[in-house]
Amino acid sequence: MKLIEMEEIKKDYFLGETVVHALRGVDLTIDRREFVAIWGPSGSGKTTLLNIVGAIDEASSGQLFIEGQEIKKLSDDRRTELRNRAIGFIFQGFNLIPVLSALENVMLPLEIMGTSFSDAREAALRRLDEVELSDFVRHQPDKLSGGQRQRVAIARALVTNPSLIIADEPTANLDSDTSRKIIGLMRDLNEKEGTTFIFSTHDQRLLDKVNRLVRLEDGRILNGGNER
Amino acid sequence: MTLIAIAMGFAAVSIFQGYIHNTYKGLRNSAVRGEGLGHLTIYKQGWLEKGKIDPDKYMFSQEELKRISNLVEEDEDVILATPQINISGLVSNGRTSTIFLANGVIPRDDKTIKGTWAAFRPVKGEGLSEKKPYGVEMGEDLASHLDLKPGGYGVVMATTLDGQMNALDIEVAGTYDTGSSATNDKYIRVPFTFAQSLYDTEKADRVVVLLNDWKKTEATRERLENTLSGAGIACEIKTWNELSLFYLKVRGMFDMIFMFIFSIVFIIVIMSVVNTMGMAVLERTKEIGTLRALGLKRRGVSLLFAVEGAMLGFLGTVFGIVLNVVVWAVIRSVEPSYIPPGSSSPVPLIVNLVPQSMLFLMLFLILLSLMAAILPARRAARQNVVDALGHV
Question: Is A204 helix (H, G, I), strand (E, B) or coil?
Fold first, then answer.
């Protein structure tokens, strides 16, 4: 069942008078429950591709469908609602709000959605328990380790029960032991809850766990987007 | 710094507002009670324009005075309606003479008009009394120039309405401070009948009306104008603030100073909030990107910063209120005094706490802070999500 469909996606950046072709016509389809890695050298267009799939950036041309909706036709407000409801983000730098506790950070997407405080709190506590952070719910990000912060970010990405989670280099800032735990946690969630994960990475341990590898080079997908 | 700027601005405006509130109240009392203008003054039609040329023609007769008093005192808001007459001439101690301006008042009505004001500028010696028809109250500087003390005697001379010279003995029953160096060496208060005798008339040039509440001045004027014109009495009615030029001038000056101070605070608050919110947007660009990625709409981001601006305004004004109360308490305990321009004696510096004005100012500054935050907030909301996330 298709979750994401990309047809001839191109993305150009303008640096002064120079045009940088970040994506040069990407065709890609991702089904629900997939655990997909976007892999490629620096500057190959991985992050650009994830930003477009996550509906936080717009393609210069081509068509993108998420859950059957053509993104280009949505207003900014509708796109923002789609992100809130259907997409979770895990950032390389965690991107937690520093003045909020772990619990408040996880509650944030639900509060934006308009969920009642008690329901948001209950759901956030459940997600924090799943990522084994029940004892740290009151801690602010600066009182947590890197691995704990990334687990808070995962809990935040999951709290709205999205159909898709996008992770940009999720283990890049973590030590190997913590990386292993985070990879295991994401894989478990993918298998148990059927959440689709798309992430960019260079981490071989993470690449070993995926069931699909999309190789990107010079803004193009190699091998038809399936190396495994 | 922004909180301090808003707090200082609020306190500066509020303290000045408290000061002028007290000053206006003092000037109003001074005009109504001290100058004896009452709240309303009724003149015969044409008196203000031609009364000086032909006073006899434009003064109220005994019969007219009686009719006016009866009609006016029927009004529920009128405490008192009393005839008065202004006279002028020369006053002498037997050796030297000088000019005087006198107000002829009915002593017991004058006491009613003065009310508690009498305690603020008390008469040294005895006041006016029906029992002493030639007893007068004299301005302190005038009494001093003539070397007259309470109990002393002198003579006043004036031209009657018929153009004859007339002179009457006076006894200085008491002396008083008019509050103004410009009038303290000229003013006398005399019994109404004494003034009529000096001008050899039974008429009065006006009827002074005292109300139970100064706020009802305009409404009562309209009612009385209708009542008196309905009774066929051609007259014109002036309010205390129309007659007290001093009040109008001082008020105009203070209003101008207030606007000046308020404009400065207005600009400081706007600049401070815009600067602070601009910095906040810059510092939290990555957070804005994160919130947008998580699903917060553009108007949500705008609202977030606008509310933050309003909170800045709220906290600033709360600190401002504290500062205001502290300054108010210090002034009350120190009790400083000063001599205003034209005043003959020091007056206490009093600053009122005016809750209604403080609340209005508070709401205004909160709204102003919110408005000032809108520009940076809009800038925050319009940022590209990817650029914001990549901001370092």
Answer: helix
Minimum Cα–Cα distance from B286: chain A residue: A95
User: Has the ipTM of the complex gone over 0.95?
Assistant: no
B343 touches chain A (CB under 8 A): no
Rounded distance, CA B246 to CA B250, Å? Answer: 6
CA dihedral B299, B302, B308, B309 (to 10 degrees): -130
- A99-143 pLDDT per residue, tens: 999 999 999 999 999 999 999 999 999 989 888 888 999 999 999
User: Hey, what amino acid is at B276?
Assistant: T
Q: Which residues pair with B85 in a beta bridge?
A: B104
Q: Rounded CA gap, B323 and B218, in Å? A: 37
Structure-token match 């914001």, residue found: B388
Task: For chain A, give the number of residues.
Answer: 228
Task: Select from A57, A98, A109 the Cβ nearest to the Cβ of B294.
Answer: A109
Interface residues of A toward B, Cβ cutoff 8 Å, are 51, 54, 56-57, 76-77, 80-81, 83-85, 89, 91, 95, 97-98, 108-109, 112-113, 156
Amino acid letter at B52?
A: K
The secondary structure of A112-132 as a DSSP string is HHT--HHHHHHHHHHHHHHTT
Structure tokens at A151: 């687990």
With residue A192 as reference, give the H or E element that holds it: helix A176-193
| CA dihedral of residues A140, A146, A152, A158 (deg, nearest 10) | 160
User: Are B297 and A76 within 8 A, CB to CB?
Assistant: yes
What's the CA gap between B276 and B372, in Å, rounded?
10
End-to-end CA distance of chain B: 25
What is d(CA B37, CA B207) in angstroms, rounded to the nearest whole number? Answer: 10
Which helix (H) or strand (E) segment is B259 a member of?
Answer: helix B245-283
The DSSP 8-state label assigned to residue A98 in this structure reads T
- The answer to whether the Cβ–Cβ distance between A112 and B294 falls below 8 Å is yes
Q: A84, B294: Cβ pair inside 8 Å?
A: yes
Global pTM value: 0.68
| Res B258: pLDDT | 87
CA B354, B360, B363, B368: dihedral to nearest 10 degrees?
-110
For an interface test with B, the pick among A23, A97, A166 (most B C-beta atoms closer than 10 Å) comes out as A97
